[in-house]
Amino acid sequence: MSTSSATAQSHPNIAFIKYWGNRDNTYRLPSNSSISMNLDGLFTRTTVSFTASKKDSLIINSTEVTGKGLDRVSYILDLVRKMANINERADVTSENNFPAGAGIASSAAAFAALALASSRAAGLTLSEAQLSVLARRGSGSASRSIPAGFVEWQMGKSEEDSFAFSIAPVDHWNLVDCVAIVNSSHKKTGSTEGHAIAGTSPLQNARVADAPRRIEICRNAILKKDFEAFANIIEHDSDMMHAVMMTSNPPLMYWQSATVEIFHQVREWRAGGLPVGYTVDAGANVHVICLGDYAKEVEKRLREIPGVSDVLVAGVGGAAKIV
Ligand code: PMV
What we know:
Oligomer: single chain
Strand order of the largest sheet: 8-7-9-6-1-16
CATH topology of the largest domain: Ribosomal Protein S5, domain 2
Bound molecules: (3R)-3-hydroxy-3-methyl-5-(phosphonooxy)pentanoic acid
Distance between the termini: 25 Å
């Protein structure tokens, strides 16, 4: 029995045009295309070793994980075993350098690193598109953590062509994400359950139908480095996704009062000439995106807002890679 091992590292990403709702939940085929940027400095590093063990095992940040968390990993390992025509079980060890519960979706970086490490450990050398498809099966947004820099995930027509690709490299535009951490004691509904109920909102069809327009505007704003157009479209898109969340059944209300306070402040700052815009994922924390030169000032102002307990700062990140 062969024993082989590989370690991969990948960044989380922040979506500018959001993915919310699947047209196929099993394959995680999205209802609309999305655009994001990888977050530099934050990463997940994962080692996969195929061994003679009887079962797959998973350790995240030195703690053994069983149950649903392990099942989700085994699901990806099964896809890899099938592709590589092997039967060995795997030991998976993963570490994040960003705190859990910090408002950074860890599943995107986790499944991107798992897709790359497990396929390589199994002796496969997959293309970027194939890796993106494999990562997507674990968590939709993970498809966007495979390519570098500014990334678009095309919804595609089938399982094979729903993958992400780079629309601009890391050094194209010096954007910085200042993540304002808003304390929240409320229990959150995870994105897998959220995607499944997106269609219960009467607003989802309108959001999806309008997505090609928003994708076009956002892609052009990034390519032309037009910050004003960029800030307007990311806020509009984030608000649309949250309108769907709030009007689904059951309703999902992720915002806290500090979340809304930050929206008002950010718009005031922009009206006053500071290049900033906000976007929010399935949580209360606000990703305040700004031009790199203004990151220090934005971080300082965010820290002064009551209810903001911390601010994480990340620039544009590269592709998932073997380390
Ligand atoms: O990849 P998932 O299933 O965790 O979904 C991500 C959903 C959002 O973060 C809210 C939006 C996005 O496009 O990343």
